[in-house]
Design goal:
The structure is a single chain. About 10% of the residues lie in helices and about 50% in strands. With about 230 residues, the protein is mostly beta strands. It has a four-stranded mixed beta sheet with strand order 4-1-7-8, with no helix packed on it. It has a four-stranded antiparallel beta sheet with strand order 3-2-5-6, with no helix packed on it. The N and C termini lie far apart (about 50 Å). About 5% of the residues have low confidence.
Length: about 230
């Protein structure tokens, strides 16, 4: 049986599409927003049936991990009882279908004594370009960022981005962080400083509530992304 050229081209395209779908991957960077009572050295990442060692850090997301395109993976803790090893699932995480690059922030939540639980926050890194500044609010208050003449309002569990293309040349600007309680109307100062705004440096700032004392704080995250 002879096939027409059109049919052969259609079949070839279909095969290429299926291959590309099978090979599709996501890149993820993982950090933890607060150091829990249980050491992070006990935790591992489970992708499909494979256990992956990972150095969890608060301030350094390091290099990306590659996961299948379905976006599913788990944070697990290895336990040994009577010489037998098992893996306790600490968090089930799913990176969205249309997200190819993501920052996953593991926020410890209050749980039973000696039990560790996380609430994952997933931030899409699409269009997070050189020079961009991203502010992520995982605290229990609304946040407001004053960056030079720009003001960014960030609701709880939301983020805001300042695009590096608007910076131009490096310059020093005023940087202020403010917060407002859910039932409040007044913005309260957290900090004020002079800040070197640079067009070629990506930066991520995370605001969070400390589960140990209920106070809110913030920190920067280093992330290794290619151009």
């Amino acid at each position: 049986m002879k096939l027409s050229l059109t049919t052969l081209i259609t079949v070839a395209c279909a095969i290429c599409f299926l291959q590309s779908q099978a090979e599709a991957k996501k890149e993820i960077w993982i950090t933890v927003s607060n150091t829990p009572t249980v050491t992070m050295r006990q935790l591992q990442i489970k992708i499909a049936d494979k256990i992956v060692e990972h150095r969890f850090s608060k301030r350094n997301a390091g290099r990306p991990l590659v996961i299948p395109d379905h976006g599913l993976f788990q944070i697990v803790r290895e336990n040994t009882v009577d010489g037998k090893k098992s893996h306790e699932v600490i968090a089930n995480i799913e990176v969205g279908e249309n997200v190819s690059k993501a920052l996953v922030i593991l926020a410890p939540i209050k749980a039973e004594p000696n039990k560790l639980q996380f609430k994952p926050h997933i931030e899409n890194l699409k269009d997070f370009d050189q020079g961009d500044k991203m502010f992520i609010n995982l605290s229990e208050n609304a946040m407001q960022i004053h960056l030079g003449e720009n003001i960014l309002d960030i609701d709880i569990c939301k983020s805001a981005k300042y695009k590096g293309k608007n910076i131009g040349q490096s310059r020093v600007v005023k940087l202020a962080y403010k917060y407002r309680k859910p039932d409040g109307k007044v913005w309260n100062d957290i900090s004020m400083s002079n800040y070197l705004l640079q067009p070629n440096t990506r930066e991520i700032i995370v605001f969070y509530t400390d589960t140990k004392n209920g106070r809110y704080d913030y920190y920067g995250v280093s992330i290794n992304m290619q151009q």
